[in-house]
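Quick illustration for those who missed Monday's session on complexes.
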Amino acid sequence: MQYKARSIDPAAAALGAQAPELALVVPTLNERGNIELFLELVESVLEGITWEVIFVDDDSRDGTAEAVRRIALRDPRVRCLQRIGRRGLSTACIEGVLASAAPFVAIMDADLQHDERLLPRMLETLKHEPYDVVVGSRYVAGGGLGQWDRGRAQISGLATRLSRIVCKTDIADPMSGFFMMRRGVFEDAMRHLSGHGFKILLDLLASSPRPVQLKELPYEFRRRRHGESKLDTLVAWEFGMLLADKLVGHLVPVRFALFAFIGLIGLGVHLLVLRSALAVPELSFAVAQGIATVVAMTSNFFLNNVFTYRDQRLKGWRLLRGLVSFYLICSVGAVGNVGIAAYIFAVDNVWWLAGIAGAVVGSVWNYAVSAVFTWRRR
Ligand code: GDD
Ligand code: MN
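Prediction with manganese (II) ion bound:
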């Protein structure tokens, strides 16, 4: 059977005849209303440059991917990488870069908040000066936050200061989502990237095996035209996870550290409830201990659901199912904990060593098994 393309404009072939020198990787989530204008603006500033745009769409429900593919039939410089059942700005950017062969790659939002007029200068800089990355910066002279209210500006300022701790490079705006890089810097870092959350530049700078040579160009953050921002508490949580991963992730997985920390809180809850229950004369010790155990397990479950597994939080009917599975898993963990501790105590008679060993084995079990059964990825 002969392959027949669906209505391709003959003029389109000429546009895509040359390998692109510059790729724009543009993550999208419900940005249909911005795509046309985005491409118009980009085309107008990139004259004389061979370029391509890869929109990485996480299965937007507003038809963003379809809109991009419609344009791609007329313009082979435009492509859509659609991901199903996935979410995440950083991983979207990573996969977009990997889908291109261009020697220079820019990451840019679809919502027209980043100033496309910076693109030619970014490319010139990379071609003629010894930099690896050129960042569109809101925090150098001439740049700005546009019309952000004071609250958001303050939060952004705080997050920026925190970010600088994990960056190996001196940078004014590590939270910027607008930058261009040489392909090589990305390839050197790509196997170390954490991929958590919203901040791909920060991830790149913190994960690069060598300090990145970087230049910042000022720009003024613009107002969103269509659609809405995806910034929410989940994004804030992911930001915290990224920072923690870059600070201590090489020692212990961040999720496990959170889980273990919540386990410690659970111990406090347990002792408090036990003391209160023992104050009731009708309750025997065993009953009081039983009540304290159930309360502590329950509070651990809900704390883990909100903090450790915020990105796959259980709700409604799944919440109930998760709670029951968590009770079962922790009960087995408790039996293992006591068994191991008793065994070690019998062997070496050091009470605290036996106690710690039992607790460690119990929490590793609880963590590993609940990760698979309670908060399994759908
Ligand atoms: N594929 C994909 N998956 N795209 C996403 C996702 C996702 O889960 N979440 C957001 N996006 C896309 C949006 O469609 C948009 O094109 C871009 O990523 C940025 O999202 P916004 O929701 O517009 O972010 P913002 O305006 O709050 O944040 C901006 O400011 C930060 C600086 O503080 C962004 O420019 C960030 O990149 C920037 O770091
Ligand atoms: Mn935006």
